[in-house]
TrEMBL record, chains A, B, C:
NCBIfam families to which the protein is assigned, alphabetical: PRK09355.1, thiM
Family: Belongs to the Thz kinase family.
SUPFAM superfamilies: Ribokinase-like
InterPro entries xrefs: Hyethyz_kinase, Ribokinase-like
Annotated source species: Pistricoccus aurantiacus
Keyword Cell division (UniProt): no
Protein name as catalogued: Hydroxyethylthiazole kinase
Coiled coil: none
Source lineage: Bacteria, Pseudomonadati, Pseudomonadota, Gammaproteobacteria, Oceanospirillales
Role: Catalyzes the phosphorylation of the hydroxyl group of 4-methyl-5-beta-hydroxyethylthiazole (THZ).
Residues that coordinate or bind substrate: M43, A191
Recorded metabolic or biological pathway in which this protein acts: Cofactor biosynthesis; thiamine diphosphate biosynthesis; 4-methyl-5-(2-phosphoethyl)-thiazole from 5-(2-hydroxyethyl)-4-methylthiazole: step 1/1
Keywords for this protein: ATP-binding, Kinase, Magnesium, Metal-binding, Nucleotide-binding, Thiamine biosynthesis, Transferase
Amino acid sequence: MSDCAAHLARLRETAPLVQHITNHVAMNLAANVLLALGASPAMVHAKEEVEEFAALTDALCINIGTLSAPWVESMQLAAKTARHVGTPWVFDPVAVGATAFRRETAARLLELKPTAIRGNASEIIALAAQGSAGRGVDSTDSVEAAEQAAIALANRTGGVVAVTGPVDFVTDGKRQAKVANGHALMPRVTALGCAQSGVVAAFLADTEDNFEATLAALVSYAIAGEIAAQRAQGPGSFAVAFLDTLYRLDGQQIDTYLRLEMSDEI
Amino acid sequence: MSDCAAHLARLRETAPLVQHITNHVAMNLAANVLLALGASPAMVHAKEEVEEFAALTDALCINIGTLSAPWVESMQLAAKTARHVGTPWVFDPVAVGATAFRRETAARLLELKPTAIRGNASEIIALAAQGSAGRGVDSTDSVEAAEQAAIALANRTGGVVAVTGPVDFVTDGKRQAKVANGHALMPRVTALGCAQSGVVAAFLADTEDNFEATLAALVSYAIAGEIAAQRAQGPGSFAVAFLDTLYRLDGQQIDTYLRLEMSDEI
Amino acid sequence: MSDCAAHLARLRETAPLVQHITNHVAMNLAANVLLALGASPAMVHAKEEVEEFAALTDALCINIGTLSAPWVESMQLAAKTARHVGTPWVFDPVAVGATAFRRETAARLLELKPTAIRGNASEIIALAAQGSAGRGVDSTDSVEAAEQAAIALANRTGGVVAVTGPVDFVTDGKRQAKVANGHALMPRVTALGCAQSGVVAAFLADTEDNFEATLAALVSYAIAGEIAAQRAQGPGSFAVAFLDTLYRLDGQQIDTYLRLEMSDEI
């Protein structure tokens, strides 16, 4: 059994509680993805309860896809609590390059040192302040073009950074890996990237190696996408098959499908 | 035709308008479940319009899954209006044990005497103030352990209380029943419980017996789940099949599948 | 290739960015519908960023399904910006007849001259202030009964008005057309009408004829529904098939299925 399969087995055994402050488009899918995988999602974002909940959750996922001023406050409170009690938290900088409000919110969240960051290439480039032209939520840059930005971000935050796309790239500033699995239908299902950030949080809930755990999350997700596409006729049936596949995903499938390019040194 | 089938036939004939103030994860599914079944859902939660709408709806469902201060105010306004004009309303105390904000909100809503309460075992125990340890939204207690809490709650509110799980339990403090239908995939689809609370509201819209109507809602839902699972390969295809099955559910299926344990006296 | 097919081909070529301020029930489906069709959706509604984003989007869709005071402010800011920079914007007056809050919000948005309005018959009648009795979000009036209201609205706003139902009606005050495609399962899937308003916005993003573009949006949608129904067993499988069908829809299917009643003069 590969390391990735072992991480997945541990996730199912511990069924971590994963608090989300995520966008309105992603909430339902993110919860279904985590339930299918074997984790326990909870969407909690009111400032009146966000700290109390963040102190008891096993992992936290913050996503700026659909911002509002009250939620920005809650995101900061939750991330501070997570950092204070030592709970891993994942930051998903959706469309961070599009508006000043997003850039400022992201900058303040970055100061709270996310355990991992997951975004598409345009988002990672914009977050590392290298001036991407991304307007919307879909990437207009290649993953390769974002590699240096990802390494710089990892060094700045001390966390893991994952750039997802046709080939995923993940780094902790010292190690890096590329995951060549996945399928072209994945970006045709809204919020599949956002939901993946919650999956990274779930894998980080109980691990001693954040890089390995994030990598296992990317691998599981991309392989599930690849298998699901075999019974898909378009994005509708793909999304259904994807949840079924996550639910049934096992170590043998991971070992069979895995196409990893690993390089320990940068 | 059983009583349950008669309640379902009446729902389809009257197509009740069911106002929801429900959580962000559940909204879409709850609306689709009601449309599939034959009712007419409406999500209306702004304090500027919530009383006006609550005065014209046929039933109301309030769910505290994703709280915020403005919505807590709207929930109270809507429940007060429903009570004032005699419209049935259902309370779904999602994750009520997790934070003080939820406990306080729930306590105030309980004072407005919900016509029915539907929750999982951990939620019903926490609501009855018996100190459950539930952290997240998924139950950590058995339905059986929540029976006394349910009866106590029913006596306190004068309403019906339903505890859903592998075997559902429903009581109005005088009568009780258990529904042994359902399927293990149901808790793997997010918000399926939340959507069920809306279904209870729809069944309560036009009935002379709230206990019987709630029981019919539980039975229809659990049997639809059981039938849907026959064509499911996981939670994704289950959710799709569940909506199809609700749409086609008929009295003969209910009579064929029904596994009810009834006991009129407590 | 018909005009409708040409409009669809152009949409896929340009992949327009379509900003939505839409309701909580519709957000996920609206995004998936646009992605399946080939456009790029973005849900952005905070007043802190709504003008900045509206200045860079290719089209805007505003939907009052789940209102709140902060969003009403954002809707006005976004529509004003769209009008100022000349970006097409679509107004979807969900349940406008139900409450004073909706009527007042809609009246103010109408003053900002939407490029197109799309609603069901009850909504269009209520919006034209002809006193519909619609309580909820589902239509209680026939499309035919809304034709005069649609023409009056089109003349008042100078824009296109579409009434969708069993047979869709569209007019710009001078021209009119009826689309006889579609399927009875479509109103059984929540927010399918709301998502259609986003599709109209996507078709309007790059066109010289707003009437023709709106008509092409209605035609594509209704034909996709008709084809999808062939593999549906109920509203669950219909929704899945509908996304697959939008993804694969081609000009030949449009030409084969099209049932248009066109009349250039009113």
